Amino acid sequence: MHVLVIGSGAREHALLLALQRDPQVDALSIAPGNAGTAALATTYDVDITSGEAVAQLATEIGADLVVIGPEVPLVLGVSDAVRAAGVACFGPTGAAARIEGSKAFAKDVMTAAGVRTALSEVVDNPAHLDAALDRFGPPAGNRAWVVKDDGLAAGKGVVVTDDRTLARAHAAGLLDDGHPVLLESFLDGPEVSLFCVVDGDSVVPLLPAQDFKRVGDGDTGPNTGGMGAYAPLPWLPAEITAAIVEDIVKPVAAELVRRDCAFSGLLYAGLAITPDGPSVVEFNCRFGDPETQAVLALLESPLGQLLHAAATGRLAEFPELRWRDGAAVTVVVAAENYPARPRIGDVIVGAEGEKVLHAGTRRNEDGTIVSCGGRVLSVVGVGDDLTAACADCYTTVEQIRLPGSHFRRDIGQAAAQGRIRL
Ligand code: GLY
What we know:
GO biological process, one term: purine nucleobase biosynthetic process
Mean pLDDT: 95
CATH topology of the domain at 2-94: Rossmann fold
CATH architecture of the domain at 2-94: 3-Layer(aba) Sandwich
Cofactor: Mn(2+); Mg(2+)
Pathway: Purine metabolism; IMP biosynthesis via de novo pathway; N(1)-(5-phospho-D-ribosyl)glycinamide from 5-phospho-alpha-D-ribose 1-diphosphate: step 2/2
Number of strands: 23
EC number: 6.3.4.13
CATH class of the domain at 2-94: Alpha Beta
Bound molecules: glycine
Catalytic activity: 5-phospho-beta-D-ribosylamine + glycine + ATP = N(1)-(5-phospho-beta-D-ribosyl)glycinamide + ADP + phosphate + H(+)
Oligomer: single chain
């Protein structure tokens, strides 16, 4: 099977590594990729937001399966174009990808499916902002304001704060830039990312994971696209994971079928485990980054065959997934000044090997690898338990040299020390 992966992050690097372990995968291609993925797959430079360009590439290279990593091409309907060209595609149609691309659509689907989620309100008129802020946040009984960019913002458009001035400034800035603002009620409880491979009504969950969105240790500083993750979650009882699948993901998948926009691809449920039970923070229409780097490190089942089964309507026949025992951790090495305006162009040393997944990297003509994005690398460690996986991961992180870079030192620690309780 020849698989073409679309994307350029550490998530796509992790997908390639897992696909390479599948005995039925004999060729890998990627567009546009990065300096690390070039060692695993033939690299093509196409506009990945153009369905026509991606479908043409898939046809020209004889791909048997296209796997679309990022949300933007999915929301733009690139998978529709690939399927129309007769190539199997892992990734939802543009209509189904609205579960991530349109907050209003997602809330409507969740309400119809009877799924618990945060209360929300869209503000698109600055004159209505103060009254809306009064309906959310601490005066209304919430612990904090949750202010989001209503469009796709790669996690960076989110501010969670108990400081009304900060909440207002973020919302006003978004409105000034012409972006509608989404205010949500704060969901109190540890967060879980549960990725499910979905094909219509069939839902196959992967291991639950947790990511770390704030830039600093102890969940301080601004939100980022994600600074690290670990899987599985020792503090999350299996019954809660099962309940998330049965009571949340399956009803949402069924509701999408009912609306004639069946989901085929990776449905990512982001949840908070509140005192009242799991509640949805968001749905995404693709693998999460950086959780994928940890989750796929433990997958023993053949990923290419799994994704191909989902893409061709045969997921229900796929054997139960097999996982390596133990735990996996990923730590993101970010460029100086990320998430604001990251410095780029710095030479990276020590970024070789299967434990170092590349994101914002490119190779110079002289062969050196330099940074070209905010989240530069994603280092993965595995071990018999979370403590061992953290040790494995941080040993590699410490060997990397990237001037001005920073990373969190507490990924997975609270869970490893038994400090997360429900
Ligand atoms: N880990 C957050 C995301 O992928 O959106």
